[in-house]
Amino acid sequence: MRILGLDAATAACSAALLEDGSILAHECEEMEHGHAQALVPMILRVMAGRSFAELDGIGVTRGPGGFTGIRVALATARGLGLAASLPVLGITCFAAVARAVKMPPDASKLLVLIQSRRRDVYAQLFAHPRQPLLEPAALFPEDLPAYAGEGALIIAGDAAVGAAVAFGGVARLAPGPGRPDAAMVATIAAEMLAETGPVSLPPPSALYLRAADVTLPKGRR
Length: 221
Prior knowledge:
Elements: E1 2-7, E2 12-19, E3 22-30, H1 35-47, E4 57-61, H2 67-84, E5 88-91, H3 93-99, E6 109-115, E7 121-128, E8 131-132, E9 137-139, H4 144-148, E10 153-156, H5 160-163, E11 172-173, H6 182-196
Parallel strand pairs: 1-4, 4-5, 6-10, 10-11
Antiparallel strand pairs: 1-2, 2-3, 6-7, 7-8, 7-9
């Protein structure tokens, strides 16, 4: 099985090509802006001349994260999927981050925290990297301990370091940058496709946990 994974939802852009569980090619670049210009050239380099018709599917992060980056990645994945008649599978940023975490045996829960660029953070609690416990939410740091509840906790994600103080030192930080990455997106998408088979799937929709921040020009209604 050959899967193309894409991510542009946070402060990075990445693409990866997975074949039978192994990453054949992978690129990742940190960036606050410019995802729309970076993503397609990155995909072409990862594909390295291979035809998109050779793929079995495309996995793409659908949020939460930056409004523009999410839309860029989803539109690109949908366009490629439509052109090559491929299934497109949406993966949350929470699932992609969680999948990269190696849980120690004494930890019972994993809390993934994604930057919102505001005072709140996007959060989802997992029993282990493949099993969500609660629905995702946008929360202020002081509300995170109540959301996570009791038990030995690992926290991961690009908002984890800043939010760790809310736990008073009882939560442990997972190593790594904590951003979703296309390699994990492709891995999860391959597993989903192996379970469902090449069935007709609806196009993935964006996951937003609060409204987009939009400022209209002065004088406009």
